[in-house]
Amino acid sequence: MASETQSKYIADLAVLKTKEFKEVKELLEASGIVGENAEIVRNAQTILEITGALTDLQASKFIDVLIATKEPKRDTAYSTKRINFATGEIEHIKAIINGWDFGTQNYAALVETILPQVQAACAVINNPEIQPEIRQRNQEILLREIGDAIYEKVYDMNAFDMEIEHTKGTGIDDRYYGLAKVISDGVSNASRGALL
């Protein structure tokens, strides 16, 4: 089995050297490294399944293959259609959040009301033709906007319950950075984001 360090390095290289997860599998199979584990690679749904099937030596050879692979050409800007869709989804999500009422304290149920829109916006932003850093930055913006809207609404709902008229919280923390990286990288390494 590949070491944890090898697995992480392969996942990072996959993001840099391929646009989609299927390319990672094709590259590994074409290299002839996997031998009898070719079927496992072919059916793998995540990069962890692949690295779990590789020996240390196979993982080292695959790292060499990935390093030697030329980085694909990627764009640095989204199409207007994608920008408009993502912006519209953010506004739609904020409107749903704003409509949450004070009758429930089951915040998990409230989050379910926006999950399809969040997933749709994430999918549009995660265009494999866009550079990974730009995808990640846009995921960060999306998650920060949604997180801020949720935080403000829940804070307002709780302040209302406590009969506090005018107050404002400190805002959400910066966990959205890590979430954005996982979601963005998932295009190439098939990691499962928290939302997807």
Structure explained in plain terms:
The protein is mainly alpha-helical. It folds into two domains: 4-68, no CATH class; 80-189, no CATH class. 67% of the residues lie in helices and 0% in strands. The protein is built from ten helices and no strands. The chain is elongated. The two termini are 27 Å apart. 28% of the residues are buried. The mean pLDDT is 85.
Descriptive keywords:
196 residues; mainly alpha; 67% helix; 0% strand
Shape: elongated
Reading the helices and strands in chain order gives HHHHHHHHHH
Number of domains: 2
Our count of helices gives 10
Strand content: under 5%
Fraction in helix: 55-70%
Q: Indicate the radius of gyration in whole angstroms.
A: 20 Å
Major sheet size, sense and barrel closure: none
Annotation, overall tally of beta strands? 0
Unreliable spans = none
- Class of secondary structure makeup: mainly alpha
Rounded mean pLDDT is 85
Distance linking N and C termini:
27 Å
Short characterization:
This protein is mainly α and 196 residues long. Helices cover 67% and strands 0% of the residues.
What's the structural blueprint in terms of helices and strands?
Elements: H1 4-17, H2 21-31, H3 38-43, H4 47-53, H5 56-68, H6 80-98, H7 107-112, H8 115-125, H9 132-161, H10 176-189
Helix pairs in contact: 1-4, 1-5, 1-10, 2-10, 6-8, 6-9, 8-9, 9-10
